[in-house]
Every structure is written in C-alpha cells, then in structure tokens.
Amino acid sequence: MSKNCNDCACRLASEVSQLKAVVNAQSKTLTKLIKQMKDGCKKADEVKECAMSGLLNPCLKCLKPDILYHLGMDTETTDFPKVFGDVRFVIMGGTKGRMEHFAYYVMQEIGLKINAATQLRDMAEAGNRFSMFKVGPVLCVSHGIGCPSISILLHELIKVMYHAKCQDPVFIRMGTCGGIGVEPGTVIISSEAVDGRLNPAHEILVQGAIERYDSTLDENLAIDIKLCHDPCKDRYETIIGKTLCAHDFYEGQSRLDGAFCEYTPDQKKSYLEQLEGQDIKNIEMESLAFAALTSRAGIRGAVVCVALLNRLKGDQIQTPNDVLCKWEKRPQELIARYIRKVLYFSDSDEAEEMEDDEEPNESRKVSIQESQGASGDTQKDPEPEEEE
Ligand code: R2B
Ligand code: URA
Question: Best mutation site among 150, 174, 176 for ligand 2, i.e. most ligand atoms within 8 A of its Cβ?
Fold first, then answer.
C-alpha cells in the first residue's frame, strides 16, 4: 500500500473509532433517559444542590423571583433546572457572531446536529446586551469588551448555574489578544491573569474601598486543553503562559496609535520588554475578571486566545481579514475537541462502557439521529441555514 493510502486508512480508522465512541456515549445517555422515564422521573427530581451554592451570596435564596436583567430572564418565568440543568460547559467569547458560529460548530463536533437546517435561538435576546445559545450541555455566550462587561455577565451566568443546580460546570473564555514575543496566530492558554503592575489580582472598588481577588486559573484545565492541540495536524503553536489583562486597548496596552499618547516609543518598548522578561505571553482585556469571579465561585476556568500580532513588532493589526478569521477559529477547534473528549472519551465512560459491555442493551441499537432527539431542547423549528 502507498504511504498516501496508509495515511488515509489510518485517518479513516481513527474517525470510525471516534464516531463509535460518540454513538456509544449517546446511546448510553438515551438508556439513562429511558430508565428515568420508566422510574417516573424520580431521579431527575432528586437533583442535588449546586456545589458552589455555599460560596455565593446567601441572599440569593430569598430573591423570589431573581431577575437576571442583562440576560433578559427571571426565575419565575424560566424553569432553570429544566432549561439549564444539563449544562456542563459555558463557553464565552467577545462577539455574538463568534459565539453563534461556535455554537453551530460545536453542535457538529459533538454529534448533535440533527440536520443542516437546524437553527439555534438566542436565549438572551430579551436582555438586548449579550447573546446566548445552548447546544445540549454547552452554553455559548458573548461577553462584550472588558472586565466590567464580562463581570456583569459572569454574575448572571453563575446565578444561572446556581438556580439550575448545574454540577461542576467548566467555564472557558475564548478570544483574541496581542502576543508578546510570539508568532502571530499562536494560541495562548493563560496560566494566570495579571494587571498592568503585574499583580495577579482583580481589583474592584466596593463602597469606595479597593477589594482584591485572586486571579488564578485552573492549571489542569489549561493542560487538558493544550493536550487537544495536535502538532502533526495543527500548523500553529499552542502555549501556556501568563496573560496581562488591560482595561483599555490603547494606552492600557502601551500602544502608540491611540487618539492620545503621552509616552515615547522608547518607553513603550521598554514596558513591553519588561513584560516579556516577566514571561507574559499576551495582552487581552477580560481575563482578570474572568479568573477572579470563576475562582470565587469554585468554578474551573480557562482563557484561550489567539495572538493577532506580536506587540514587540507593532501596534496595528495589518493581517488581512480572511487570515484573521482563520486564526480566530483555532481556539474554537481546541475547545470543541476538549468538550468532545470530556463528553465521549472520559475514564468514567470507559469504566461504564465495560460494565455495559457485560450486559448488552437493546437501546444500543438506536441510530445517532434518534439519540440526538433527546437534546433538542433549545432548537427552533428547522429553517434554511445560511452558508457559513
Ligand atoms: C481582545 O480583543 C478585544 C479588544 O479588541 C478584547 O475584548 C480582548 O480581550
Ligand atoms: N485584543 C487586545 O486586547 N489586544 C490586542 O493587541 C489584540 C486583540
């Protein structure tokens, strides 16, 4: 057999084994759901309290209803456990377009795409600020620019998790950044977030006093996401490193091209070189609030950004738009692979699979389309899908 043929056979074998795992995992979910139906939904009614509840505002219990103003929903008119109880991944990114694209992409990647015409509903449309799309256990939400914007959203998303009694959800922010001494197009997973003075703390003014919160991120989650990078297939580097979170794109990131600039090119150069010397790999604008709020809630969090330029070489983003669009998909690919791996290839699944194998189950025979029906809760009636 020629080398090409061999490669192709290998790829096909790997795709077949991946598909098998997806089908197995989905039929297992279906088996569980059927069992729950047979048991009169007893199990579903016995949902545990959310583990984070002890860390949150005790007054939440008394809010009847709790109004999540910026998401345009409240606990009286939305049944949170029913609508959001199965959420395991909350993926956040700057814009509506990116998050809508990611929602469709992840739907395909985790095998929940029923047909090409499936349409998702923006669940936060009534709030007129953020956009939110749910694909089975994945919630995709836009966060706008900067710490104030993402922190408002995080307060409300954490309350969504609490009201829905979600168990151990993982939060991931994906986005763009300026690289420090890295090749443009490189993906950087943050090990921790620091402020402009390189302190690993998110400072907020509360009643006139500065409150500091640790801005640590989950080390294992960062490693797990990095492991989803395939050096043979992905023609870019993925690294783990420290991230500087600025509260502005121009002066806050020591750019020379803002409407105002009161430092010299030499001062800019020496600040960025100081960052490089301190192992800072990138600059973006939300990681401090993201890290502080997720860790206060005991939520595992990661920040995955692609560098649009190397700030040691310039300030303006000159790369053509079509290339930038390709680069923006890199964090999405890694995160979708991570989700797929957790959903379909986790150790506990393997253990359960062995048990299942001992006692073959009728419902194993369901097709992938049938099993998807169980997760179609937020999908609208099919309408023609636009070309992407
Ligand atoms: C990266 O890019 C945006 C600014 O252009 C900001 O949201 C960020 O963190
Ligand atoms: N986003 C930022 O915040 N900074 C950059 O330089 C690029 C994207």
Answer: 176
